[in-house]
């Protein structure tokens, strides 16, 4: 099947099996390796991308369903000012250790800040409840998102 | 073999279904996990897939005087964001999985997947939800308890899709829902209890109770509920042990990797006891 969609603001076309996972198409066909595979079953959030404005697990999306949609990965998001604020805040809080889960957490954090620019701790925890991190114990990530919300005031 | 169809409308989808045996896929959050292959390989679907996630006709929601009509393709997130969705549903839906899954998973998928642990099912039972099914040149409507027949089993025909969920509007003033799982997010429930009631003064005017993941399908008994209707606090208190015994007969859980039989049964009955003895009693004046 031929599939047309917008990837990181660019119109792209791919001719492939429509049931392949969006995750695999992004990593293998477009070499966007910031999208990680952790569990492959929607539990860990490492493959989180933004699909038409909403975060989704790209391991659960057959690529044939993204026809005409907007897909944003961490590579597309990193060109924004919001990304820079989140990156600095994560670094300041020590929210990154091995880094494998980080792109997913950043996408989930951004999705929440777009809806709730000044979240409380419970809202942050709820927003990242679909992401697993095996290094940090989460406290540093929650702290990083709080810092980003403070320092990025007005951006979201 | 065609791997997937992408219809332009519901009618087009039904046309395809009248000629091909397919697996309809809306959110895909269950299907893609059930059929996953090794990392990097496409999932293994035994039949061609019919994508229906993009059909706007299946994402409508409208409130009529006495009922709410939710199209099957509404995602959990869209239901949480819609003002017409009853608050009881929002409490239940907010506890499903995580934001990523709620953005994609649909209420129709939750029903058609027919898991005994399906999170929306107990509340749909309690609300007497009706399902509208369509096929080419035909449609039918039936209560949700007639639709679900066992784990993963429904009466859906091969050329039929679930189009709409019709929920009568009730004004319960007492609601208690508890999903018991290994963690708050992303867990498949070990068991769940849903209790809805209308308590006026010192009397139960309406009461519904349903149990998830403790039998092949959701457990709800209109007969037991009828025995509680019209009862006062005093009468209810006396009846509680008997009611618990009646439900103990109906709760027949299995043992699996998530939970033992004993735990499922004990906790279900304790939640029932809490609902009747504490939540309802607290509402009595």
Query: How do the strands of the widest beta sheet of chain B line up side by side?
Result: 4-5-10-6-7
What Rg of chain B, in angstroms, do the CA atoms define?
A: 20 Å
Q: What count of helical segments of chain B does DSSP give? A: 11
Radius of gyration of chain A: 15 Å
The CATH class of the largest domain in chain A, by name, is Alpha Beta
Q: Which residues of chain A form runs of ≥5 with pLDDT under 50? A: none
Terminal-residue CA separation of chain A: 37 Å
Would you kindly provide a written description of the structure presented here, covering whatever features stand out?
- The complex is a heterodimer of chains A (156) and B (285).
- Chain A is an alpha+beta fold.
- Chain A folds into 2 domains: 2-77, Ubiquitin-like (UB roll), CATH 3.10.20.30; 81-151, Orthogonal Bundle (DNA polymerase, domain 1).
- Chain A has 6 helices and 5 strands; from the N terminus they run ββαβββααααα.
- Chain A has helices at 22-29, 74-77, 81-93, 102-115, 121-127, 139-151; strands at residues 2-7, 10-15, 48-51, 54-57, 70-72.
- Chain A has a 5-stranded mixed beta sheet with strand order 2-1-5-3-4.
- In chain A, α3 (81-93) crosses α6.
- The model of chain A has no long low-confidence stretch (mean pLDDT 97).
- Chain B has 2 domains: 4-168, 2-Layer Sandwich (Uridine Diphospho-n-acetylenolpyruvylglucosamine Reductase, domain 3); 174-283, Enolase-like, domain 1 (2-Layer Sandwich).
- Chain B has helices at residues 10-19, 31-34, 76-81, 87-93, 99-102, 107-112, 121-126, 144-147, 222-228, 233-250, 261-283, and strands at residues 4-5, 23-25, 49-51, 61-63, 67-71, 130-135, 138-143, 148-150, 153-154, 161-168, 174-180, 191-200, 203-212.
- In chain B, the strands form 4 sheets. In chain B, strands 4-5-10-6-7 form a 5-stranded antiparallel beta sheet. Chain B has a 3-stranded parallel beta sheet with strand order 1-3-2, with helices on one face. In chain B, strands 11-12-13 form a 3-stranded antiparallel beta sheet, sandwiched between helices.
- Chain B is globular and about 65 Å long.
- Chain B starts with a strand and ends with a helix.
- The A-B interface holds A 1, 17-21, 24, 28, 37, 40-43, 45, 48, 51, 54-57, 59-62, 64-65, 67-68, 108, 111-112, 126-127, 129-131 and B 3-4, 6, 25, 27-29, 32-33, 36, 39-40, 42-43, 45, 49, 51, 53-54, 77, 97-101, 103-104, 184-186.
């Amino acid at each position: 099947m031929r599939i047309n969609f917008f990837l990181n603001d660019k119109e792209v076309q791919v001719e492939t099996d429509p049931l392949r996972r969006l995750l695999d198409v992004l990593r293998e066909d477009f070499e966007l390796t910031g999208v990680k595979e952790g569990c492959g079953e929607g539990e860990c959030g490492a493959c989180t991308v933004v699909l038409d404005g909403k975060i989704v697990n790209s391991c659960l999306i057959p690529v044939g369903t993204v026809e005409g949609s907007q897909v944003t990965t961490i590579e597309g998001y990193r060109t924004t000012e919001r990304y820079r604020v989140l990156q600095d805040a994560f670094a300041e809080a020590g929210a990154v250790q091995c880094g494998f889960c980080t792109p997913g957490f950043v996408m989930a954090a951004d999705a929440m800040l777009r809806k709730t620019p000044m979240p409380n701790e419970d809202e942050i925890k709820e927003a990242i409840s679909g992401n697993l991190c095996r290094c940090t114990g989460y406290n540093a990530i929650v702290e990083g998102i709080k810092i980003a919300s403070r320092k990025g005031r007005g951006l979201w | 073999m065609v791997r997937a169809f992408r219809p332009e409308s519901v009618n087009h989808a039904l046309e395809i279904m009248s000629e091909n045996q397919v697996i309809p896929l809306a959110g895909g959050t269950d299907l893609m996990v059930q059929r996953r292959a090794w990392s990097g390989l496409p999932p293994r679907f035994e039949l061609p897939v019919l994508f229906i996630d993009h059909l706007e006709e299946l994402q409508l929601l409208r409130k009529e005087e006495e009922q709410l009509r939710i199209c099957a393709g509404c995602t959990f997130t869209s239901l949480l964001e819609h003002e017409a969705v009853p608050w009881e549903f929002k409490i239940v839906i907010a506890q499903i999985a995580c934001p990523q899954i709620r953005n994609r998973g649909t209420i129709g998928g939750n029903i058609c997947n027919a898991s005994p642990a399906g999170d929306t099912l107990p509340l749909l039972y309690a609300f007497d939800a009706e399902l509208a099914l369509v096929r080419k040149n035909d449609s039918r409507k039936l209560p949700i308890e007639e639709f679900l027949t066992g784990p993963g089993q429904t009466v859906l025909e091969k050329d039929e899709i679930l189009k709409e969920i019709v929920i009568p509007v009730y004004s319960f003033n007492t609601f208690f829902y508890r999903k018991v799982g290994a963690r708050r997010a992303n867990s498949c429930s070990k068991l769940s209890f849903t209790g809805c009631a209308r308590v006026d003064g010192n009397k139960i005017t309406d009461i519904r109770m349903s149990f998830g993941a403790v039998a092949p399908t959701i457990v709800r008994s209109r007969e037991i509920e009828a025995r509680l209707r019209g009862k006062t606090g005093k009468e209810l208190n006396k009846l509680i042990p008997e009611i618990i015994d009646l439900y103990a007969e109906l709760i027949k859980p299995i043992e699996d990797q998530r939970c033992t039989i004993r735990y499922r049964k004990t906790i279900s009955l304790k939640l029932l006891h809490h609902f009747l003895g504490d939540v309802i009693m607290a509402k009595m004046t």
